[in-house]
NADPH-dependent 7-cyano-7-deazaguanine reductase
Amino acid sequence: MPSEPSKDLETFQNPQPERDYTIRINIPEFTCLCPKTGQPDFAEMTLEYVPEKLCVELKALKMYIWSFRDQGAFHEAVTNEILADLVAATQPRYMRLTAEFNVRGGIYTTVVADHRAEDWQPPVPVTLP
């Protein structure tokens, strides 16, 4: 039976909750519809997050992203909606979603939205000589 788009975001337990580490997911085929013209908008999204207790399951994420294919949305709105849904599902220490939309009328749009848990402080970066 073929897969169907879904707004359900499944999660699984973080295998290393005691450690700050970054999960980076590239989503090269995001599509939604322009709310003004109904024409398709295409974007490459990059999701980066430091998990707390939960991680997002990748097949569920794929079905979730697919669910926007027939939805009309401004770039800014859809990027923030996706971030809000992912934060609600996973409650990460930190999460950033970068959406790089393809050219439309000679204009490229990149929207970057992030979330930081109130009590989380990023570790000091290590600089190697």
